[in-house]
Specification:
single chain, mainly alpha, two-stranded antiparallel sheet, 6 helices
Length: 113
Amino acid sequence: MFRLLIHWLISATAVYVTANMLSGITVRSFGAALIVALVLGLVNVLIKPVLVFFSIPALVLTLGLFMLVINALMLMLAAWLVDGFAVASFWWAVLGSLCISLVAWLMSAVLNI
């Protein structure tokens, strides 16, 4: 349970840092970033597998690069669901999803989680 809480905090921090780095992504506060991290986690568990399954031909054809599109769509869905979090466009969502992943990965590596 503690490990899940740490991952949630890492994701929220990654969202907050990304929003401060990119002008096309805004988050109102760290509390909103916590909610965004929770919503992103739920969306990635419930909706993303269905999208990945139905887009297997596109994933094979693009050698997996279509996952960038899926991740961007998940971030845009989270922005649509959470008040206080906004993504300006699809391309900001692509860049934001890459940035969030990179920051979360770096934080997990530093914290050895």
